[in-house]
Amino acid sequence: MNKKLSDTIESPNLALSAKQDITPALRQRLHSAELFGTGREVVIEHAGEEYRLRLTRQGKLILTK
């Protein structure tokens, strides 16, 4: 019994409903240099809480509460 691969795998439904918006969401883009300036840490206030965004020696970002 030889089945084609397409017979055994269901293909996803790629049709979009009329209500779905296919326009990409607009996002504000910031460069990390704009946030950090000459420092290596910024405090972000969100929903009454403070978060620290730090820049590591390896150039990675760490967000902590």
Layout of secondary structure:
Layout: H1 5-8, H2 32-36, E1 41-46, E2 49-55, E3 61-64
Antiparallel strand pairs: 1-2, 2-3
Task: Give a verbal description of the structure.
- The protein is of the alpha+beta class and 65 residues long.
- It has a domain at 27-65: Complement Module, domain 1, CATH 2.10.70.10.
- It is built from 2 helices and 3 strands, in the order ααβββ.
- The protein is extended and about 40 Å long.
- The N and C termini lie far apart (59 Å).
- The mean pLDDT is 80.
Features:
alpha+beta, 65 residues, 3-stranded antiparallel beta sheet, Complement Module, domain 1
Summarize the structure.
The chain has about 60 residues and is α+β, with helices and mostly antiparallel strands.
* CATH top-level class of the domain at 27-65: Mainly Beta
Under CATH, the topology of the domain at 27-65 is which? Answer: Complement Module, domain 1
Shape: extended
Element-level helix/strand string = HHEEE
Q: Quick one: how many beta strands? A: 3
Instruction: Give me the side-by-side strand order of the main sheet.
Output: 1-2-3
The averaged pLDDT comes out at 80
Helical residue percent?
A: 10-25%
Distance between the termini: 59 Å
What structural class should be given to the helix and strand makeup? alpha+beta
Number of separate helices: 2
Largest sheet: 3 strands, antiparallel
Query: Low-confidence parts, pLDDT < 50 over ≥5 residues?
Result: none
Within CATH, the superfamily of the domain at 27-65 carries the name Complement Module, domain 1
